[in-house]
Amino acid sequence: MSNATISAVTIRPEEAAHFGKLADEWWDPAGSSAMLHKVNPVRLGFIRDAIDMHWGADIASRQPLAGKRALDVGCGAGLLCEPLARLGADVTGVDAAPENIGAARAHADAVGLQVSYHDGELGTLVPGTYDLVTAMEVLEHVADKQAFIGQLADRLADGGLMILSMPNRTLKSKLLLVEGAERLGMVPRGTHHWDDFVTPEELEELLRAAGLVMGEVRGIAFSALRGLELSDDSSLNFITTARRG
After folding, report:
1. Are 185 and 191 in contact (CB under 8 A)?
2. Domain residue spans in the chain?
3. How far apart are CA 163 and CA 243, in angstroms?
4. Is 74 assigned to a binding site?
5. What's the CA gap between 98 and 59, in Å, rounded?
6. Known binder of ligand: residue 109?
7. Are 217 and 242 in contact (CB under 8 A)?
8. Considering only CA atoms, which of 138, 146, 16, 122 is closest in space to residue 71?
9. Is residue 239 very low, low, confident or very high in pLDDT (cuts 50, 70, 90)?
10. Residue 179 pLDDT exceeds 70
11. Which residues form the signal peptide (predicted)?
């Protein structure tokens, strides 16, 4: 389950090339990004709850991010950027693969959404901060994880909210995400490198070093009856928030 191809300082060319080849299928729920289409509603449920709690938003509001700036790093073809725009945010998406940004722009234009897309490293963006910073399934693709988290922190406005998700480095994730999902064709081969996965404890240390405090960790787990869902089981994948300490 990957949604990202960007590094804060050093973009791994092979990572950008891998995801760039998938650009034409990002928006096909039956294509190579099918798993993303399944996990995106789960992420969005967590994000909406986090937004409401952080800013005390009206839970009935259709646009709780109205008047706020959002940055999605490693945005792929915009699967998260577009929902954030519908929630009212002024959205910027950045990704290492130009092919992904081309697909993102084309799709946003087709559905009439205003999203500012940029290809390249996070540091190439015009200086500025954002109320909401997201990076979904990105950290495991980054060469210098501490530098990347530091740059995310630099983009977070005072009083802002950061949301991160990633696979956990456990035996379960190795068996199911790498050995299982990729071998069975559920995820494109070469998407995951288990040694680069990060545990919640390691993420907390990275965030602390960047002056951020990690929030509650929620697992993204698979249920035979309900499919992917938020769970107390974080052994496969997890999502969490961060804010300034």
Report:
1. no
2. 13-244
3. 9
4. yes
5. 36
6. no
7. no
8. 122
9. very high
10. no
11. none
Which helix (H) or strand (E) element contains residue 51? helix 34-55
Residues 92 and 118: beta-carbon distance below 8 Å: yes
| Structural tokens at position 169 | 């480095």
Residue type, 62: R
Q: Summarize pLDDT for 83-139 with one digit per residue, the tens.
A: 999 999 999 999 988 999 999 999 999 999 999 999 988 888 888 999 999 999 999
Q: Is 144 annotated as a binding residue?
A: no
Mean predicted lDDT score pLDDT of the chain: 87
Burial class for 195, CB neighbours closer than 10 Å (0-12, 13-18, 19+): exposed
- Domain covering 13-244 assigned CATH 3.40.50.150 in the classification: yes
43 known member of a binding site: yes
Residue 93, token pair as written in the block: 């998406």
Q: Which percentage of the chain shows pLDDT scores above 70?
A: 85
Q: pLDDT at position 34, please?
A: 74
Dist. CA 61–CA 52, nearest whole Å: 9
